[in-house]
Please model this.
Amino acid sequence: MSPRPRFPFLVSSLVFFLLPFLAQVEAVSADRPNVLWITAEDLSPVLGCYGDPDADTPNLDAFAKEAVRYTRAFSAAPVCSPSRSTLITGMWAPSLGTSQMRSTFPLPTEVKGFPTYLREAGYFTANHVKTDYNTSDETRLIKESWNESSPTAHWRSQARGADQPFFSVINHMVTHQSRTMVWPYEVFQREVQAKLDPSRHHDPAKIVVPPYYPDTPVVRRELARFHDCASVLDDEVGAILKQLEEDGLADDTIVFFYSDHGSGMPRHKRLLHDTGMRVPLMIRFPEKYRHLAPAAPGETVDRLVTFADFAPTVLALAGVAVPEAMQGEVFLGPEATPEPEYIYGFRDRVDEAFDFSRSVRSGRYLYIRNYLPRLSWAQPSVYSDLGAIQQEIARHAAEHADELTGPQRAYVTSPRPIEEFYDVEADPLNIVNLLEGKPTPDQQAALEAHRTAFVKKRMEILDLGPVPESIMVGYIYDENRPLREITLGLTDHRPDLETIWAAADLVGTAERADLLERVHDGDATVRFWAILALRQAYPRDVELVESLYDSIDDVDTAVRIEAAAWMADLSEKHRYEAVQVIGRELISDEWWTALRACRAVEELGEKALALMPVMETLYARHRFAEGDGSLYLAFSSGVFLKKMGMPTQPWDFSPKP
Model:
């Protein structure tokens, strides 16, 4: 028998005192909103409610009249998986090491998918169906986050309890780059356009062609195709909203509609310009939750919002405490923070295409810092290059090089600027880089402020972007801990990110003596950036590159490859040795290292002809192998072989009838 309470009067008094409070807690918990995310893929704000003249989106336009519509909502990155890593964790992917496309780095165990906290608070969580969280812990995140995650997951699940609040995600693929440009046109017609009444097919002759595209029949046809996809999406969204009404849940559900990043069309997806980063975001609050809304139905909100903000905001709407590790801001409800002055953006490797750029966006300006400016924004990438519109842009640029307009040239040519700075109010398409002229005093002051904000933010979140993947892997192997714990100083060794970033910042300078000194630095990442900065500053200096001969024998693979690629490009004297160095890295067991070497060979072309047998072997090994690493190696090696006149197997990612 349990002992009787020593102070029965005190206990009963406490219960009596707490009864009203407990009843209030129960009432609050029973009155939590459902939250529905209707998400699209690869969609800029090309809807009628956002003023797009080619849009045919009646359902979303009607939804906008019932919702608050954000005019400055931005993805974290202009590609899917790094953005989804940010969305699910509420943490910036570069701070976790998950900013490279299809990375497989681990997370700290305390970093969870934010729906986990909703589940713990009694919510039913359903994900239909995309995950793509860009980490080796994806399986754990899915298991912890979702009651159901499948092609049939829905708030209608029988596993959801009666009156149990839900958080449900329904993702739509119909505007994905595959549908809008990569699949052959006849496949698009069969799989997507056939869902529209012919009267709603967009007329290519009436389409508005943006200034960064050539105005050709192919471009017009593909732009019309894109808008057809958006119209089909609109129908699909209308069907979901109708289901919510049919189930009698519309009055209890806060509904978000947004896209994972800008459209999948060229010069949109993969770029940090507003065409790649700005997304539609509309949020509908039913009457009982209208006190949580920042504006009345049908009104617009100009607050800067980014994907890192979504997780803490949903938790706050549900009355769930926001974990301290989350890096975003709450932008809805009584816990909403003041609007940030700037938001961050990032672009790292996407598929086989290496890149490294960062952005800072304010209400008035967009600042972009490019760390691999010798590479075009339209650098070769097999998946995107399957698109007829991408091929048309490349063809037009090659055949009409002297006739290209400034916006067309800026996309397809290299080198690109070290820095880009745009007045987004005067130039919403970001086609006039203010740094190509003389900025006004106000613009110069704004530029300095954005530069300062960039340096502050990258250290605030401990952005790992300048560290090559092979070196990040080395950190993990050495410390046997996730990258976030290593950068926080929770292990024996901690990388000096300030020094690493300072080395990367030297790209764009010509401080020859300083750069040559850093070539011998004790930190491999500093040496890596010293080589890249020298190549950027002195791209055709044969004497300089030959003086760096020892670097092709560096102890670090990333340094060796970059030094050897430059050496093989310029130095006839040392080309053979440099090519052999790259060839040895092609057979690395670490695909990210082999890919860096393979991409160097692809760029070298005939200068790396001696590696033909190795590239043939690499292609044969990976062309039909499973896994993202094999896919990217097959992409890159296949491009090289095709350039050299060797047979390759065509790529086709379209569904079969």
